[in-house]
Amino acid sequence: MPRSKKGKRGSSKPGSLRQEVLQLQLSAKGSLKGVKNGMKGESAASDDDLTSDILSHYSSASETASVLEEGTGGEQVDEQTAQEETEDKLKQCIDNLMDKSAKTRLAALESLRQAFSSRVLYEFLTGQRLTVRDCLERSLKKGGGEEQAAAANVFTLLCIQLGGGDEAEEGFKSLRPVLTSILNDSSANIAARQSCARALGMCCYVSTAEEGEDLVKSLALLESVFTSSYPNREGTLPTPKPGTPGLHTAALQAWSLLVTLCPASKLRELLELHLPKLQACLQSSDVNYRIAVGETIALLVELGRDIDEEFEVEDTESLCECLKSLATDGNKHRAKNDRRKQRSIFREVLHYIENDDFTEEKIRFGVESVYIDGWMRKRIYDAFKESLESGVRHHLQYNQLLRDIFGLGPPLILDAATIKGNKISRVEKHLFNSAAFKARTKLRNKVRDKRADVM
């Protein structure tokens, strides 16, 4: 929802925000007056309904304002005390990772996952990283499938917290063998194998350098997982076992993230080897794997065009026909949401392949924005979003690793005047959203009237 500019809040033009607010206030007063006089007429009831609708549709008019308000509104809290309390709770969770009860360890892992994803804890974790790493290694080696999956997810977040320095690289080298072992174990829990695939991709991306030994080994390992979905010599796709499409999807996405680090010589090799076979995988029976394959093809084509302006996909016509089919898929045996999601993604992939044009996306956080202007940038952002979930915007604001990756520079330090200038009061939010809701209702009613006339 667009935010009204500060300079236009006092406007008295018909249809302005102020005019709508005044009308709403007069309507509310009329409703109260009718109640006081014992009136129970239809107009009073409709005003009550309107007030109820307004309150039920209340939402934040600006993410920027809500973020700033969280940091400045309410009672002043002793930051030092709050920091100490948070660290005490985290230390207790770390201690619980060594508890004999699997239930206690799982609860501790979940608490750490939430804490690591929602805030930046670099200074605290720098001193605790060895203890946390040893506990996670123990869970990966001796825990059940659910505990292994949770431990791999927390390790991914630990590497993101520690950034691209020696600490993250040291941790990745230490736990890579056990992550590899679980990923390669066909008898291991499928969710644990998926988490290990994602952890290997993200932790290697964060900690390794281009042309590094870790990068080459991780690429080969992830390839060995998802290439089992490639067609056989007769050109037939293998019948997937239960759970394997999800594993192939996780491995392919982790692999494509690491491909963005490869030098041109390695990229040419990968393009020649994988593009033709990935095209065949567009016929997979699993919608999420099809989507991952389509996005990976678009990414590889983009990287190929970056290193060679004349780069073209072999049999482009056949590829585009397949993409058109997926972009307009209406098969009733597929779930409605799956069809909608698939069509949206493959329209974008087809548009890029045919026109070399990517639909730019703007991600807002605080008073800043990051632009997703290509498939490579989208793959990187999606990978961090998958790991950090709702905390990705907070990390974009304050985590130096993400700010370096997306070219945002040092974290912004906002002074009191800036915060006050961007802050929107709760009353203003209510009034803004009320006016916007009423305007939207009027527009919809007009559309309905036109439809009625046609019918």
List its salient traits.
455 residues, mainly alpha, disordered N terminus, disordered C terminus
- Shape type: globular
How many distinct helices? 20
Order of helices and strands: HHHHHHHHHHHHHHHEEHHHHH
- Number of DSSP strand runs: 2
DSSP strand content: under 5%
Largest sheet: 2 strands, antiparallel
Strand order, main sheet: write it out: 1-2
- Are there runs of 5+ residues with pLDDT below 50, and where? 1-22, 24-76, 450-455
Estimated helix fraction: over 70%
- Find the structural class using helix and strand composition: mainly alpha
Using only C-alpha atoms, the radius of gyration works out to: 27 Å
Average predicted local confidence, pLDDT: 80
Terminal Cα span: 32 Å
Write the layout of secondary structure elements.
Layout: H1 17-36, H2 42-56, H3 63-72, H4 79-96, H5 102-118, H6 122-142, H7 145-162, H8 166-184, H9 190-207, H10 213-226, H11 244-259, H12 264-280, H13 287-307, H14 316-327, H15 336-355, E1 361-365, E2 368-372, H16 375-388, H17 392-398, H18 400-405, H19 416-422, H20 426-454
Antiparallel strand pairs: 1-2
How would you describe what is shown here?
The protein is mainly alpha-helical and 455 residues long. 70% of the residues lie in helices and 2% in strands. It contains 20 helices and 2 strands. The protein has a two-stranded antiparallel ribbon. The longest helix has 29 residues, at 426-454. Mean pLDDT is 80; it is low at 1-22, 24-76 and 450-455.
